[in-house]
Amino acid sequence: MFDFVSGVTTGVAGNFATKLIEAFWGGNKLYSETPEPSNDENQFDGSAHSAEQHPKLFETFHIKNGFKDILRYVEKPVVHAIVEDSPTTHYHLITLVVECQKTGEWFVSQKGEMAFEGGGGGIRVARNVIELCAGRRLKVTPWVLSVEKSELLSSGRLLWHDVKQELIPLLTYAKSEYFIDRIAKRYRELTA
């Protein structure tokens, strides 16, 4: 548990240090004013306006340095891999949610470290997560969620129970042939 708290503290300190460096190096203001909100209240654009609409509610963890600690802490874990329906980057990024079957407690990862695509770091993290879970006899259950809701969840601005009813099983997701041919296929290969 100490490693988890240490990881969160390190992340917060790192974010503050990054802001300081940006303020001095890049000429950005440390505490800048937020832009005026747009008239379109329903559109998610990742701006400060969206952050005002959805304030941060909880801390998220890094998959690479916090996932093992979360698994050790949660007594009866269920691991969910939430794949965004549209790519944030070149790939459809994944948010992990670890939920306790016994207490209902849940923990959400930040998005950006894991993907079921490509050949680099994202797929390597996915392989490591699946292998770690397999070693503990846990299944990583894949789901699809809108990129907007995925972003809010992974940034601690939307609660897990508010999103659960909108999840679509990855293996039955029919919106795109790409998901069937690439993402679902890669998930099956990793879990075989």
Strand order of the largest sheet: 3-2-1-4-5
| SSE order, one letter for each helix or strand | HHHEEEHEHHEH
Shape: globular
Distance between the termini: 31 Å
- Rg: 17 Å
**Residue share in β-strands:** 5-15%
Helix content: 40-55%
Tell me about the biggest sheet?
5 strands, mixed
Give the overall average pLDDT: 80
So how many helices? 7
In the predicted model, the low-confidence regions spanning at least 5 consecutive residues are 7-49
* Helix/sheet category: alpha+beta
Q: Tally of extended strands?
A: 5
Describe the secondary-structure layout.
Blueprint: H1 2-25, H2 48-53, H3 63-73, E1 77-84, E2 94-100, E3 106-108, H4 121-135, E4 140-145, H5 147-154, H6 160-163, E5 168-169, H7 177-191
Parallel strand pairs: 1-4
Antiparallel strand pairs: 1-2, 2-3, 4-5
Helix pairs in contact: 1-3
Q: Can you describe what's shown?
A:
- The protein is globular and about 35 Å long.
- The protein has 192 residues and is of the alpha+beta class.
- It has a five-stranded mixed beta sheet with strand order 3-2-1-4-5.
- The chain has seven helices and five strands, in the order αααβββαβααβα.
- Residues 7-49 have low confidence and may be disordered.
- The longest helix is centred in the N-terminal third of the chain and has 24 residues, at 2-25.
- The two termini are 31 Å apart.
